[in-house]
Batch of 3 targets.
Target 1
Amino acid sequence: MSSEAPRRSDATRAAILRAARARFAQDGYQRATIRAIAADAAIDPSMVMRYYGNKAQLFAAAVDVDLRMPDLAGLPPERLGAELVRHFLHRWEEDPGGDVLLTLLRSAATDETAAERVRGIFREQILPIVVRMAGGDEPEAQRRAGLLATQMLGLAMCRHILRIPPVAAMTAETLVDHVGPTVQRYLTGER
């Protein structure tokens, strides 16, 4: 009996997270409600509160993003930008977690909680890579990492949320060819 309870608990948590991701993607953080998420998961709202505490904690769990940044150390320096663009395109378009990234991006445009989560991902996952590449020069690395974020988040926004026709229609490799050199400059500090 005790082995059945954890499985039921895991299934309930997973159902809540699926419903929350869909609801946050559809309604954004502000308009999404615990009641609507619970209804989508076919459970009582008290269960959402039991497992996640409140809407902010549920949102944090629903958009827990690991970018799984590639190890760029072994790559030839001239391929860094292209590989990073390719990595991000793969995460958004082919990886099951890509929808979570896009949900977070949609929500960040209108909600400070989501925007802070994006800033946290930037600080925790992107900035350390650029700091290493900048030889530990933190102010320079912050500038370069910030510019890198403008390219990658702008690309995601234009391709997947706004669906700007030329950008949405390009193949991934065409985007790598066009955006990779810009990202390369940001990573290496070359002008």
Target 2
Amino acid sequence: MLRLIYSLLFRLALPFVLLQLWWSGRGNPGIRNDWRQRLGYLQPSPRPVIWVHAVSVGETIAAAPLVNALLRHYPDQPVLMTAMTATGAARARALFGDRVQVAFSPYDTPGSVRRFLDRVRPVALVILETELWPNMIALTRARDIPIMLVNARLSERSARGYQRIGALVRPMLASLDWVAAQAGEDARRFVDIGASPQAVTVTGSIKFDVEIDAELRLAAAALRASLGGRRPVWIAASTHDGEDSQVLAAHRVVQVQYPDALLVLVPRHPERFEQVADEVTVAGFRLARRSRGEDAQRSDVYLGDTMGELLLLYGAADLAFVAGSLIERGGHNPLEPAAWALPVITGPQVFNFEVIYEALRAGNGLLRVVDSDSLARAVLSLLADEQRREQTGRNALAIVAANRGVLESVLTELVARLPRQGGVPLEAAQ
């Protein structure tokens, strides 16, 4: 009954949701493109697909090693990746090209989801992290399609929110065939709010399996040279509204001691690129924009206003502040800078990645700050002490290395749970 009420409310809200989609697409046409897909109107797939759903950029990046492994194991099996955001869909296209189908996931109305399922005919649904929608789950389950939640995480805050609508959430979680939880606390919370204990496994996070290949290292070295050689470079990655001003205030303090220091500033969402560029120039900093190929050697701030290059930009820096953590956003993935052996700085709000941040803290690969003043002090302390900076970075890398290998075990379990067609497993590469 509660799902019926939820569906009715979603239908009533749908015109306003579409209007908001159109409004948000004023400065980013990608948001408006393919809007019919969000209502389930996709080009029919000629063959059934493995459906991988990742809400946005972070989840898409996390899914990449798993999708690549599925492509290797099942070279003749189409894979469809869906995202809720234009940035997530764009990142999937950049990562996989034409090796996978990419589409927007349907809005969670019964009609949209049914049209979507009719057209793509998934043999399995693999969901990344915590992107759960009642109709998506219920209608997929009604067709006896297995549903796996991989790299699953659930903060205490989110668990409390789900408990308030337990009558809607419990049937949804009970429908999951497998929950591959990042940590024991995540597993406990999923069981507490309705997942079957037999379906929940603690696997660790596949994000630890981030790899930096030789080609990317060469590109990062070339970028670093173009930024000005041995000048101090720090990066503030995935910033949100309310954080850029604090980062710029910290950079002003840093430049008192290091006048040639460069800040690489990377906003989380592309629709904010112009706003942040204006904020930088109004603050009096010399700005170079990556999207325009501008020379950064005489700039104070290098704006990373492109998509899909964050891992590269990390490789050109001496240390990293991972944003989304000075505001109540919950933080972003710190494992990419850690994989570059960069010391990681974070604010206090990291509830989305609490286990990973705690591992970095316990391994002395992390510095915590609370505001722009403490951020400036942390940056200055690391720039002033090369030995400490390098050791902290090595500590961060050691945490990544010690936890690698999750992907292989997750893939083994996932393959075992994939459906059989005509009584035999999906055709795997030998």
Target 3
Amino acid sequence: MTAPARPTPPRRSDATRAAILRAARERFAADGYERATIRAIAADARIDPSMVMRYYGNKEGLFAAAAEFDLRLPDLTAVPLGQLGEMLIRHFLTRWEGDETLTALLRTASTNPGAAERMRDIFAGQLIATVATFGTDPATTARRAGLVASQILGLAFTRYIVRLPPMVDMDPDELVSWIAPTLQRYLTGLPEN
């Protein structure tokens, strides 16, 4: 007769990695990719900088790990067809306002090819599947997903990175009223009803 297996306690390295990633996300969001340093991230995580290098190799490797991001796209199949654009823009506004990782990734993607590739992977891998669910011509799915991304990323860039006053000053409902019809058309390939 064998004794019941005891749960494996978390390894110290798991906690260290988690602390590094938390600190990196905050630092990249606050300072952007170019100004964030391994030393600052290590100090924020209360560890030696050599530990950051041990786990992630370099700043780009750390950023790529910190930028693991799920857009958490909603299931739009239950949404009335005429409300798809509104639902999607509201979702993205909530995501941008509630998580600094996308802001850090967008800021970094504008100057760093590795981060730009990561952003492309995130949007292509997650958004195309959602867009493919709708529309009249499957051959245009990638193009429509690209157009949706252009609206979402353009909004995020002007509102959260550049902080363009008209974009920052608009409340979410006003942004939805302006952007939802365009997203609706991109999602369905049809004009808003």
